[in-house]
Design brief:
Order of helices and strands: EEEEEHEEHHH
Shape: rod-shaped
Radius of gyration: 26 Å
Number of domains: 2
Helix content: 25-40%
Structural class: alpha+beta
Bound molecules: zinc ion
Number of helices: 4
Mean pLDDT: 82
Strand content: 35-45%
């Protein structure tokens, strides 16, 4: 969804957007953002975006690479600063390092870009299956095989059971 920054009225513009996209190491099957963007001050160079994000992501398990589905949700409240660094008033340019601010070049805000960036922030560093898997599971399976498959244990088990 594209928004012309100049067209944002003081009451704000409602944003409802959904998409899916891949990232390095997984994909978002769905990401939806519902919120509002408001102008700050004279509404020419600074805006405030506020809303909620909900997403469904698929990432490989860190141990066995099996796909794990993640349901994610989070609040978004970020500042949108307009213009290339040189065009910004000094006090705004200083805030380039503000992690919760986005600098937009030009007149148009692409809400998809922000939705993607904010969705990525919700991801955990790594995910693992809820059940034992990978090297843990291989260890368990080997133990099972020894217990069930080795005939030498049969005699022992019979003794134990008697
Ligand atoms: Zn796993």
């Amino acid at each position: 969804m594209k928004i012309i920054l100049e067209d944002i009225e003081s009451t704000g513009v409602e944003i409802n957007t959904g998409r899916s996209f891949s990232f390095e190491g997984g994909k978002f099957e769905s990401v939806s953002f519902a919120g509002r963007i408001f102008p700050v001050g004279d509404g020419k160079s600074e805006f405030y975006l506020d809303g909620k994000i909900s997403a469904k992501a698929v990432m490989p398990c860190d141990r066995c690479l099996e796909e794990v589905i993640l349901e994610l949700a989070g609040d978004v409240s970020v500042r949108i600063l307009r213009g290339a660094g040189t065009d910004l008033p000094e006090e705004l340019a200083l805030e380039d390092e503000d992690a919760s601010a986005y600098i937009i070049d030009g007149d148009e805000l692409d809400t998809d870009e922000i939705t993607e960036a904010e969705a990525l922030l919700l991801l955990p560093m790594k995910v693992t299956c809820s059940k034992p898997c990978g090297s843990e599971l291989i260890k368990d399976e080997n133990e099972e095989i020894v217990k069930e498959g080795d005939p030498r244990w049969d005699a022992l088990n019979k003794l134990k059971n008697n």
